[in-house]
Amino acid sequence: MEDGLFFADVLVRGQPVLQVGSLPELSATERARVISRRIAGLLNQPTSIEAVTVQLDPSRQMALLKVNNRVLMTVTAQDAVDFDVTIETLAQQWADRLNQVLVQPNLAVDALQRLDGTGRQLVGRTIDLVPSLLGAFFIVGATWTVARGVRRLGLLWAEETEGDRSTEILIGRLCYGGVWMLGSIVALGVLGLDFAALLGALGLTSVAIGFSLKDVLSNYMSGVILLAARPFRINDQVVIGDYEGTIVQVQLRATTMITYDGRLVYIPNQKVFQSSVINNTASPVRRSDVMVGVDCDADINAAQQAILDALTLVSGIEVEPAPLVLVQELAASTVNLKVRFWVNSRQQSFLQVTSDAAQAIQEKLRAVGIEMPTEIYTLMFRDFPLK
Question: Comparing C-alpha atoms, which of 70, 65, 66, 68 is closest to residue 47?
Answer without folding.
Answer: 68
